[in-house]
Amino acid sequence: MGVAKFERFFRVAASLDVDKDDLKRYQEFVYEKLYDLLLMGQATAKANHRDVLEPWDLPITKGLQERMNDFRKIDAEVELEPILQYLAARPPLDVVLSEEAEARLVPIVGGISLALALTFKTLDPAVKNPATEHWDRAKRIFDLLL
């Protein structure tokens, strides 16, 4: 992943200074949260007797949808989408993703990324470089919601 673009994204998104040491935590965080959403989408598809996960199966909240929209604006400046395609890779599921659902993965990862950056600032408005405690708190918050 392009460390410079990763760093720039967090600077633009929430005036945060992250470094390559944060990159591993970020990748694990995004991968886990995306997988959580896909598992819930899989459950919805299976409950509706389908083996294909459609976009409407994914539990996209109003807040996540808004962050996805906000991410599109930031991405025009940062050009992070090619990197997020890598992060949108996922473990195998018991269902197949439709083309439309697959196309939503990068915007979802972008929305999760933006929500994470904004969560750091919400937890500690003065934070410049998120420490381990910030990452742990953010993860606990997301685990409560996703």
UniProtKB/TrEMBL annotation:
Coiled coil: none annotated. Pfam families: DUF1931. GO terms for molecular function: protein heterodimerization activity. InterPro entries: DUF1931 (IPR015207), Histone-fold (IPR009072). This is DUF1931 family protein. It comes from Rhizocola hellebori.
